[in-house]
């Protein structure tokens, strides 16, 4: 891995995104719109949005980042761009880390927008610090990007990359604690949820929202999310194909 090459890949991805206004709007605006829609849905049910609003700050950014990164990486392969890039002195990990770094910067903006709207416009009630909630929201966005980069290795077309989303993300959404608290799940499903990355992303958000800082148990959940990000990037580098067959 070469830091100079990694940063060059990140700069290239950011330059592409700057010209793709629809994708930028999807990444930054769509999570806030979805959270706002959920607030509107439960406006007449006091306390409901306060209960699910925090987890939604983990779920929506992760889903959207997953879709965008998996399709973008597949496009690089199918167009032959990745093969041309690898004619230069660039490792697979440089490519994936560059992508992850670029989308991490997008995740910072994404988190600032969605957390600010949730707290100050939608009156999401939390007991913790807003900046810690933002940090966890950034981690959750990066998690979605890392999972998307890993999943793209198993798709041959952009349509297949999109199909990976329900296969990878929907089971996590169902078991992450958004719909039913994880400690109330059947034993087998609880065991499955314990090995899913989105479970820890939601736990970290809930912990911060309940006033548990990142120096307490919530910090452990955040570190698990970081571990999943690193593992996804490492496995992605091991399975990345230069060209779609």
Automatic annotation (TrEMBL):
GO biological process: response to antibiotic
InterPro entries (alphabetical): ABC-2_transporter_component, ABC2_TM, ABC2_TM_bact-type, ABC_2_transport
Main location: membrane
Domain ABC transmembrane type-2: 18-243
Domain of life: Bacteria
Transmembrane segments: 24-42, 54-74, 95-121, 133-154, 161-180, 222-240
Keywords tagged on the record: Antibiotic resistance, Cell membrane, Membrane, Transmembrane, Transmembrane helix, Transport
UniProt subcellular location: Cell membrane
Bilayer topology annotation: Multi-pass membrane protein
Cross-referenced Pfam families: ABC2_membrane (PF01061)
GO MF annotation, one: ABC-type transporter activity
GO cellular component: ATP-binding cassette (ABC) transporter complex
Protein family according to the UniProt entry: Belongs to the ABC-2 integral membrane protein family.
Protein name: Transport permease protein
Organism: Kribbella jiaozuonensis
């Amino acid at each position: 891995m070469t830091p100079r090459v990694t940063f060059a890949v990140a700069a290239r991805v950011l330059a592409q995104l700057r010209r793709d206004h629809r994708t930028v709007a999807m990444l930054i605006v769509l999570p806030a719109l979805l959270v706002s829609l959920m607030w509107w849905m439960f406006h007449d049910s006091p306390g409901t949005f306060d209960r699910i609003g925090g987890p939604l700050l983990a779920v929506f950014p992760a889903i959207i980042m997953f879709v965008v990164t998996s399709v973008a990486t597949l496009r690089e392969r199918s167009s032959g761009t990745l093969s041309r890039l690898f004619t230069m002195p660039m490792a697979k990990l440089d490519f994936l880390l560059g992508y992850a770094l670029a989308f991490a910067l997008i995740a910072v903006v994404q988190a600032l927008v969605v957390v600010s709207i949730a707290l100050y416009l939608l009156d999401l009630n939390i007991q913790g610090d807003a900046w810690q909630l933002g940090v966890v929201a950034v981690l959750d966005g990066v998690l979605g990007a890392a999972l998307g980069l890993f999943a793209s290795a198993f798709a041959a077309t952009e349509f297949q990359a999109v199909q990976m989303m329900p296969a990878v993300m929907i089971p996590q959404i169902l078991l992450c604690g958004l719909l039913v608290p994880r400690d109330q799940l059947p034993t087998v499903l609880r065991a499955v949820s314990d090995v899913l990355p989105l479970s820890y992303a939601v736990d970290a958000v809930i912990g911060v929202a309940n006033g548990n800082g990142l120096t307490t148990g919530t910090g452990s959940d955040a570190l698990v999310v970081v571990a999943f990000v690193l593992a996804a990037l490492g496995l992605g580098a091991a399975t990345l194909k230069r060209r779609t067959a």
